[in-house]
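Task: encode each sequence below as structure tokens.

Item 1
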Amino acid sequence: MTKSLDLGCGQHLQNPFGATEVVGLDVRADLPGNVVQADLIVDALPFADASLDYVTAFDILQYLPRVVYAPQRRYPLVELMNEVFRVLKPGATFAALTPAAPHTTALADPAQVQPITADTFALYFDARSRLAQASGFRGAFEVVNQEWQGPKLYSVLRKAVVQERNRLISVLIPVYNGAALLPQTLDSVLAQTLPDFEVLCVDDGSQDDSLQILQRYAAQDTRIRVLQTPRNLGTVSKVMNFTLPHMRGAYCVYSSQDDVFSPDWLQKMRERAEQTGADAVIPDLVFYYAQDPVRNRTFSGLRGNRAVELSNREAVHYSVDWTIPGNALWNADLIRKLGFADFGMNADEYSARVFFMHCNKVVFSEGQFFYRQDNDQAVTKKMSERTFDYPYTQLRVYQLLRENGFAAEQVQAAALQVVDQMRRLRLWLQQNPHTFSVDATARAQARLQTCYDQMRDDPMFAQVLPVIEPVVEPAI
């Protein structure tokens, strides 16, 4: 006993596979008894999951999006194929015959608003295609056969057996001497409404009770995994690269050891990732002052718009001046492939822009990431020799923009920031000659020299180099 559904059948059902029972679906009112009336703009296919052996579509696909149920309002053909996948049994067949490009005569009807080509099914619905999930398709077909029948393309697809998809999120938390606020961060992660995540906490040679706190939490909740670096690596980027091989998730997100989150933080980000297929999802970011909440400031979407979807270049453009932040839920495969640049203390700021540059698209979600600003023990809040990495990181951002052909005014603005940071830090060294030891002062100046050496070879900086040359009298 086999059952076939003919989409858009009208008065005449077609049964090319010889099914023992054939039903149809159409929008007309005067239909025979074995044809279901449904408005696919607002109705799903009125059949149970995995209940059909065949689905056929003759001369209907080209009229999308006018006749297809699209609850997420993305791509009508993708939404229809999601429904077709749902109602077919594993290994069952979908067949479509439709006018297709490049035959212009086949597309002469102005009502034909959905272009079909020989690449459509292979690119967007084949299990081997990355575009399938990126476009919002939640299933997997195998393209069995395609052939031209005059100006029409006959395509036969088989429903693939889909293994359970990895939906796990890896939360990555580098830890160094964070005992004071670390429990708040871990409690905030464990309070998430989404249950399926792992927390990779990496102790980078802490000298306080951080490791003991991590081990205590891990003993209470198996979602927490504790890693230890073989020696103090010293920067977030190096610790993150140490962590990447241990990730199990399909998505990953970074947190400092003192940040906290709304309970729906992970859930809202993953929902948006699955809705859009985006490589990066940015939640609301709150610059968080726990003791003075009136100072809190929130970044939400692109200037308040969470619905917008950005291209990779748009995301880089808006991230350079912090119109959008870089605290995203990332496609873990992308991060594994690229890794983190590890040239200095804040090299992760540069890496975020590189990640954006390699994304298929960047979107926004609800859920809040509270980026703590009033922890005076945070490494970014202390003046140290590593602070002198900042100009080189900004130089790398400038180079990224220049090498990828961004607008001249944005490239120039990034270059001016390099000059400004070099000037201010050089001045600080001159005005505070006894703050660091002689050796620490030399190391700070060496960091400025690294940046200066690369600037010297760039015509953009030729006229300003004498002003920012990193020369300082040694401390006595």
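Item 2
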Amino acid sequence: MPFPTVYKMTVENLLNQYLEHQLSGKASYHVARRIIRQLFNDLRNYDKHKLTPLQVLTWHSEHRQTPHHANRALGILRAAYRWGLPLGLTSQDPTTRIKKHPTESRSRYLSRAELQQLLAALCQEPAQFRTYVLLLIYTGCRRSEARLAKWEDIDFEHRLWRKPKVKAGRWHVVPLATQAIEALRRLPHKNEWIFPGMKGGPWSKSTVAKRWVQFRKKAGLSTVRIHDLRRTAASHMVINGENLSVVQQMLDHSSLQQTAIYARLNTATLARALQANADRLSTGY
């Protein structure tokens, strides 16, 4: 669809053009559209050529209570203005000097009691969703890796999952626990996808998101995000004494530094070492 001959002058119009011509068909489209609908009421009627850095700063600051959402909204506005510059849709970028709100990295993982609560609730779910969640817990995989998994990726004989084109840009082979293999064996083979959608492709991001929100509410785990399951898999391995390099291999981190955040969880090993050292010191060896 070509651009209209006469452009409206509002920020809302710029954002709509950015959505239609730049993000349409991309995975980020629906997320960006939702954020625009929720966070841009105070900016949408401004003249896009006259929007000032101070106005952007004021708007961004008003959403500091939800820093992650505010930062994503700022990123969308910045991307729209920079996309529009070479097209003549914008004449300047008013977001250039606006800094993102500081945020804390999320470290939420499920306790043993919460894991039991989740597993009990999963028993009431359809087999495909139950297997999807179990795959996340048992392998620590990314949600998109499970969502896009194909039957050809699973080696049932050797209990291996070969994940193609992962985030790090290389193949990643993961051994599958007996529980994961058994859950997969019970699923029907409808097409090439392990978790097929309604139109012949895999589950969509929105399908997974909606099902997870419904499930966590029924399970009484409303604060648990689906990515917390990956963090849970890694955390419990470390808590139970597994070497960080093993956890790194499971998560397919490119460096041990990415995995090092989990080191603080293994306090049991440290406690034993400190106690043994204190015993030696107090007795003079």
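Check on item 2: The CA atoms of residues 156 and 185 lie 9 Å apart. The beta strands are 154-155, 160-163, 172-175.
End of task.
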